[in-house]
Amino acid sequence: MSTSSIVHQWENIDFKSIFIILVTAWVSAGLVRIILRAFAQALPDRLRVYVLPWIPAFRLGILISAIMLAAPHIIRPSTENALALIGTVGLALGFAVKDYVSSVVAGIIALFERDYRVGDWIELGGHYGEVKKIGFRAIHLATIDDNEIIVPHAQLLTSPVLNATSGNVGLQCTVGFFLHPDHDADRANAILLEVTSASELAASEPPIKISVSEIPGATRYIVRVYAKDSRDQYRLKTAVTLRAKAELRKAGIMSAVYPFSVSSNLK
């Protein structure tokens, strides 16, 4: 099929009508944005968030309508031309949504394998948070900073995922202390164990573990304790840190003086 049989001859194309359609669409899209934004601002906050997402949808509808109205002025209306146009658009859409389709397929696989589920705390690509929603295309993470991170399932298939809970309610917390090297290590260990076990947020099982190691300029204590509820992990870490510092100070055990060698990875 030749190009000349698909499109009108240059002199037969109604550029005036095409121009009017495009200008009308451009003006309409702008008016829709202005009107819906003004309408949303007049609504209560809880309703405004439902109105604003419709702006792109209406603008997209106007764009599609403009293309459909302008197309007959350029393309000869016939069954063959319509099928050719549909095939071209379908091919273009296929390339455009291939990443979306791969994420959907990965999401279906994830639903069966259940490597993570709603309520799990996972770390991916440097982001750590609670899984709030698992959609077909992506998962939604809520971070401690109250931010929502949307991660496509396809990325989870190619990147390592750290799952801190794996369907369990509890979660292991790690609290680090760097103390002056000249101190009673047994006394410090006993204080940390007593303070941690006394917290109402700490689980009795699995048992609390404390590891001690010497680094240049300090003695490092790593307390590993399970929170009863994974949502209380930061409250538990804060409570243990504050009370342990106070009890260590009462016992005459001081923190190490900076600078000292410390790794960000507490092992």
Summary of the model, kept short:
The protein has 267 residues and is an alpha+beta fold. The chain has nine helices and eight strands.
Give, in spatial order, the strands making up the sheet with the most strands.
4-3-2-1-5
Instruction: Profile the largest sheet.
Output: 5 strands, antiparallel
| Count of helical regions | 9
Uncertain segments are none
Give the structural class: alpha+beta
Oligomerization status of the protein chains: single chain
Radius of gyration computed on alpha carbons:
31 Å
Strand segment tally: 8
Secondary-structure element string: HHHHHHEEEEHEEHEEH
| Amount of helix | 40-55%
> What is the count of structural domains?
3
Mean pLDDT across residues: 81
Q: Ends: how far apart?
A: 69 Å
Strand content: 15-25%
Shape: elongated
Can you offer a commentary on this structure?
The chain has 267 residues and is an alpha+beta fold. It folds into 3 domains: 3-96; 102-163, SH3 type barrels (Roll); 171-250, Alpha-Beta Plaits (2-Layer Sandwich). Helix content is 49%, strand content 19%. It contains 9 helices and 8 strands. It has helices spanning 3-6, 15-41, 45-51, 54-74, 79-96, 98-113, 153-158, 185-198, 233-250; strands at 121-124, 127-134, 138-142, 148-152, 162-163, 171-179, 209-215, 218-227. The protein has a 5-stranded antiparallel β-sheet. A 3-stranded antiparallel β-sheet has the order 6-8-7, with helices on one face. It starts with a helix and ends in a 17-residue tail after the last helix. The model has no long low-confidence stretch (mean pLDDT 81).
